[in-house]
């Protein structure tokens, strides 16, 4: 098989979880964006031959995507995956260290060693967080994929409590709440080692969520970022939301529900995503589209609104997204599309103003 001109040895058909080599073609955009994020990070910080880890490498494709960026350390517990990876390395004339260990054992032997650690498991990333925190250099980058979205989006609140220590909320923006719960968990695990995590580029797509950010060793920075751990308040009567723990709805005054603890800061760094946009090839269309949307919404913190949900809740016809964006922009509010969904908008405007716009007929 080929991905972006790289040859790999992958089993055909649907990915399976037996001793076959694991390859998921659905993760193309994830690998594209991870490659561009890592490239952008290494452009910003000057490290000679950075050490790059792909701890669950499968066919080797994810690691191969980083071949131009530094020294590769690939690992998989499955001997068949190691064999496929070695064949792929040879085929693409790439040199790398390949190990056949349990992922945590692989990382534990290398404290503070890696400048980029890619954690791309099937399911949650939580079993790898502790060893990732230890193996991450004081100046490094980490990327983690989670495919267990059903728990932190609120379908399985008990699983979410157990796995992430947070209460989720199932509503129109549940995927953003999930992302913020994941972010909190990554931040907390690194903070235990006095390492600060700063989100650079995080998003949700298809069935997975990806968290990517910079790690620095700084008690001061970590303490500062602790201010970004908190709760979300949500009113199920009117759809009002705020990234702060309050008791009463700021719009209708009813009691609100809470989710958290979770990350209440930005989910991307616009200076970083701007550089990523310069680095991403134009022909990687689907990946570029995700990046453009995340970039556009990166400065707005309030969780996004799904216009279909908001319209049906307030018994008005569904407004055109672009018209609502235009009207809010005219009023001087920060507003953008959101990568979380085609019918969503992200804005810091008060709910009153959003409702006034969707209730008026002008935009329909
Ligand atoms: Zn309310």
Give an account of the 3D structure.
With 364 residues, the chain is of the alpha/beta class. The protein folds into two domains: 2-297, Vaccinia Virus protein VP39 (Rossmann fold); 305-359, Phenylalanyl-tRNA Synthetase, Chain B, domain 1 (2-Layer Sandwich). The chain is built from 13 helices and 15 strands. The chain has helices at residues 28-44, 61-64, 79-91, 103-108, 129-135, 157-164, 174-191, 219-225, 270-279, 285-297, 307-313, 321-330, 351-359; strands spanning 2-3, 6-7, 51-54, 71-75, 97-99, 114-119, 136-146, 195-205, 208-217, 229-234, 241-242, 257-263, 305-306, 335-337, 344-347. The strands form four sheets. A seven-stranded mixed β-sheet has the order 5-4-3-6-7-9-8, sandwiched between helices. Strands 11-10-12 form a three-stranded antiparallel β-sheet. Strands 13-15-14 form a three-stranded antiparallel β-sheet. Helix 5 (129-135) links the parallel strand 6 (114-119) and strand 7 (136-146). The longest helix is centred in the middle third of the chain and has 18 residues, at 174-191. It binds zinc ion (ZN). Zinc ion (ZN) is lined by residues 235, 237-238, 240, 249, 251-252, 254.
């Amino acid at each position: 098989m080929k991905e972006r001109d790289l040859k790999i040895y992958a089993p055909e058909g649907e990915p399976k979880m037996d001793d076959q080599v694991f390859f998921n073609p659905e993760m193309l955009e994830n690998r594209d964006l991870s490659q561009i994020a890592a490239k952008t990070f290494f452009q910003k910080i000057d490290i000679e031959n950075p050490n790059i880890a792909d701890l669950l490498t499968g066919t080797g494709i994810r690691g191969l995507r980083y071949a131009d960026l530094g020294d590769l350390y690939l690992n998989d517990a499955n001997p068949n995956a190691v064999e496929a990876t070695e064949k792929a390395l040879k085929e693409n004339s790439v040199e790398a260290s390949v190990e056949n260990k349990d992922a945590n054992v692989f990382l534990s032997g290398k404290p503070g060693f890696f400048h980029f650690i890619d954690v791309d498991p099937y399911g949650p990333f939580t079993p790898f967080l502790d060893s990732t925190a230890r193996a991450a250099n004081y100046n490094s980058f980490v990327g983690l994929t989670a495919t267990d979205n059903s728990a932190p989006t609120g379908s399985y609140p008990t699983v979410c409590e157990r796995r992430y220590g947070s209460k989720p909320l199932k509503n129109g923006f549940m995927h953003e709440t999930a992302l913020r719960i994941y972010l909190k968990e990554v931040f907390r695990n690194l903070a235990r080692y006095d390492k600060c995590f700063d989100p650079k580029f995080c998003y949700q797509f298809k069935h997975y969520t990806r968290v990517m950010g910079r790690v620095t060793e700084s008690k001061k920075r970590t303490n500062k970022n602790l201010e970004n751990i908190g709760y979300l308040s949500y009113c199920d009567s009117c759809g009002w939301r705020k990234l702060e723990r309050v008791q009463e709805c700021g719009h209708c005054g009813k009691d609100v529900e809470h989710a958290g603890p979770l990350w209440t800061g930005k989910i991307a760094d616009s200076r970083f995503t701007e550089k990523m946009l310069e680095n991403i090839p134009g022909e990687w269309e689907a990946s570029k589209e995700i990046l453009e949307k995340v970039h556009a919404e990166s400065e707005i913190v309030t969780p996004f609104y799904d216009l279909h949900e908001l319209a049906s809740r307030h018994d008005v016809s569904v407004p055109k997204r672009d018209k609502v964006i235009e009207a809010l922009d005219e009023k001087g509010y920060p507003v953008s599309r959101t990568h979380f969904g085609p019918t969503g908008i992200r804005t810091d405007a008060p709910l009153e103003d959003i409702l006034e716009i969707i209730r008026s007929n002008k935009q329909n």
